[in-house]
Amino acid sequence: MSFNIAIDGPAGAGKSTIAKKIAAKKGYIYVDTGAMYRAMALYLIREQATPEQIDEKCEHADITIGYENGEQVVYLNGENVNSYIRTEEVGRMASISSPNPNVRRKLTQLQQKLAADKDVVMDGRDIGTCVLPGAQVKVYLTADSHERALRRYRELTAKGETCDLDTIEKDIVERDRQDMTREISPLKQAEDAVLLDSSHMTIDEVVDAVITLCDREG
């Protein structure tokens, strides 16, 4: 039986960073759900799907994740599409297609299939509540909005970008509101998820806390 770890939480909480480190330590597959949505967008572009055709076209895409030479690979109908899914064109299509209920349903099915076959760590907004409700370990990872904004500010300034901390925090608060009030799969803590507030925790401390939860579930 596969072992599944679901990590949900608001933007900037460090979900992907934590999930990747846990996957590496446990030898599990880290499921990049965003990359799967981009692969779907690539498929729709290749099919020249109009917005009206998305419902029907998305049913024919088979998307999964694996590893080649230690690198995570996204497969679209058996093809490694890593080099195609990060373009601006794909990003624009993903913005159009990802809110579509049929696209979300199809990708949820594909993510569930992957998790049924493999030990996975998956992060997002609705993993514990919708995608993997039966996950052995569920974590709701959060941090206060100022701390999340500060992390983003440091990340951007390290890249040489000019930014304003207050603006970043306002954007994060607004994104939280949108995520928590959206009609389809809103962000919320699953009833059986463990709340982890990382405001005053290091990355390694959070990783260790989640691995301890995994060890308890054995």
Q: What this model shows, in words?
A:
This protein is of the alpha/beta class and 218 residues long. The protein has one domain (4-211): 3-Layer(aba) Sandwich (Rossmann fold). The chain has helices at 15-26, 33-46, 54-57, 88-97, 101-117, 127-131, 145-158, 165-181, 203-217, and strands spanning 4-8, 29-31, 63-68, 71-76, 79-80, 120-124, 137-142, 194-197. Strands 2-6-1-7-8 form a five-stranded parallel sheet, sandwiched between helices. Helix 1 crosses helix 9 (203-217). The longest helix has 17 residues, at 101-117. It is globular.
How is the main sheet built?
5 strands, parallel
Number of strand elements: 8
**Please, how many helices?**
9
Mean pLDDT: 92
Return the structural class: alpha/beta
In CATH, what is the class?
Alpha Beta
Strand arrangement in the largest pleated sheet: 2-6-1-7-8
Helix percent band? 40-55%
Shape: globular
CATH superfamily: P-loop containing nucleotide triphosphate hydrolases
Low-confidence stretches: none
Straight-line distance between termini? 12 Å
Oligomer: single chain
CATH architecture: 3-Layer(aba) Sandwich
List the helices and strands and how they pair.
Layout: E1 4-8, H1 15-26, E2 29-31, H2 33-46, H3 54-57, E3 63-68, E4 71-76, E5 79-80, H4 88-97, H5 101-117, E6 120-124, H6 127-131, E7 137-142, H7 145-158, H8 165-181, E8 194-197, H9 203-217
Parallel strand pairs: 1-6, 1-7, 2-6, 7-8
Antiparallel strand pairs: 3-4, 4-5
